Amino acid sequence: MSDPFGRRGDDKNSTIDRRRWLQAVGVAGAAGMAGCTGGDGTDTETTTETTEGNALGTETATPSGEQDLPEVGGTYRTVSSSPAETLNPLYNTENGAGNLIGYALDMGYTFKPGNEVMPQLYDLTTEDGGKTWTGTVRENLQYSDPYGQVTAEDFVYQVQELHQADWASTADSSAWPSEVTIEQTGELEFQITLPSANLLYPQTYDPLLYPIPKDLMQPYVEEQDDAGLQEDQELLNLEFTGNLGAYTLEEWNRSSGQTYSRNEDYYLQEATDQFALFENAPYFESLENSVVQEQASRLGALETGETDAAAVPPERVQEFDNLENVDVYLIPQPYNEVCVYNMRENGWNAGPGNLFREKKFRQGLGCAVDKQTLVEGVFRGYANVEYTWQPRWSRWYPSDADMMEFGTGDLYGSEPAQSRIEEAISNVDHEYSYDSNGNLLNPEGDQCTITLYHSAGQNTERSMAEFIGQEFEDNAGIAVEVNAIQGAQFSQEYWQQEVPENADDLEWSNGSYNAGPRDVATSANAWDMTVVFGLNTYPLNPLAGEVFFQKDSFYNPYGYYPSWDAKDLFEQANNAESPEELEEIFGEIFVNIAEDQPMAMLAFPSGRTGYSSDMVGPAENFFSGWNFPGWYREE
């Protein structure tokens, strides 16, 4: 249950915002897409360095013959660290809320072990090399009364009238640019035509859609009422979901959590060709999610059996794995740990100008942090060093390339850090300098001091922030103030920009996550650095991540302008005609990203999720959770 797009977010579980919203920041979209683990809603997620076979699992054999089915009964209990801002499927961009939506509402498709597409609501096929894709909708999909059967028209209308409309600010708008066309070709069939062939189109997550009744959307479309659609009670409370999810939302208490009941008419019961246990899924009579903000309380609930799933911090993995009633799974994830620099006008508050904009300065900061010590100390070895925008087990990782590995070997320490920073400050108009003690001084003669924000209540993240701050002071001579903040507050007041009044006159203005050029569009509050969000590296198809590296994309809260021709290289990748051609282009892209250091790329932690030992279903691969409706409790 994760949004393909990637913001890791405050919950830091094994998935992310539920839509192609970013399908970007701690945000993900389809069950199992990025290693959904049933929505444990807890403290970390990302990836481990394993072999591709281990990380991606192996293809699931088609079942045959009679299958013994588990008994239905009991309650599956989860915990999350913060309340959901919205459960509106059209507008949610948060990972944790995406999981909560996913219990009651499936998306079009997901992926299962072996990197195999599994049709959920519809199947996607192509016969012309990836330029035209046909979506075939299942026949047995039903909304709640009075909306009737799900048809192709619902998906086509949603795209044409919402995602491709200028007035609507849906989370999926970026996935459906005007040059992509969608049309209904039958009651249960639609066709998507791309401007150029894309062999990995399903892996971009762009064609992932929720089923939303046309009759529910139409009044808002006719009035172009974006605010009204966001606040529609049927959408917010998932009242229309019929047989489209494993569970039915019964109650949503905004501060304390959600309760669900078993959907006895779940449509995937007819998909036994995909997984035998779907036949009578789901196997719990109810599901409960509780908001438990303190990590210690979440872990206590796991230890005592009050919850069936919770993330486990690295320093306590062995302790919990030794408990008879808990099994800890290390699950590869696509989200990285990054220290993001604010290159907008209200970033770098240590003095005049913005040194973060200088490539050599960012490289110097990259040399300041010992990544291996970070992995071993903060993550206790349950992570792998990151040098560029892919985990090593990804097919697209440029393992044979000559890539700069900042934070390791000769590219770690005070000399490589300060020599690059000195080169950077010699090229700016302001008089920065180093004193005899290795402190970086601003033009006023004071040591440069900057802020670093982390999510409140996230102990591992706090330790990481403190380690980064100490390394910056020791090796770069920059003092760092580490501050805790709630993830939602940081998103709204620091990460997002205020849209300028003259937005129409700007070179671009693409919404609150890139409201315009970095000199004119800023957030309400100034900030320097953050580790609040991890980002999705899209190891199935890195094309989905180009949004992070384009200055005028819809997602550039940090104001990064690449010094390399990112637009051209990603365009080449979009037009590639073979996987081998893609490998070559991606290799060049990832070498450029490593050199340009758009942010400090630090580590790929594994998801460390503790489950009740009687739980049957979780797996230690990237797709753990694809079959969550078939999970059950072993007697």
Automatic annotation (TrEMBL):
One example of a Gene Ontology biological process annotation: peptide transport
Region listing for Disordered, in residue ranges: 32-90
Domain Solute-binding protein family: 118-513
Biased composition (Polar residues): 77-90
Compositionally biased tracts (Low complexity): 44-62
Pfam families: SBP_bac_5
SUPFAM superfamilies per UniProt: Periplasmic binding protein-like II
Keyword vocabulary terms for this entry: Signal, Transport
GO CC terms in record: ATP-binding cassette (ABC) transporter complex; periplasmic space
Signal peptide: none
Alphabetized GO MF terms: peptide transmembrane transporter activity
InterPro entries from the UniProt entry: Peptide/Ni-bd (IPR030678), SBP_5 (IPR039424), SBP_5_dom (IPR000914)
Family: Belongs to the bacterial solute-binding protein 5 family.
Protein name in UniProt: Peptide/nickel transport system substrate-binding protein
Organism: Halolamina salifodinae
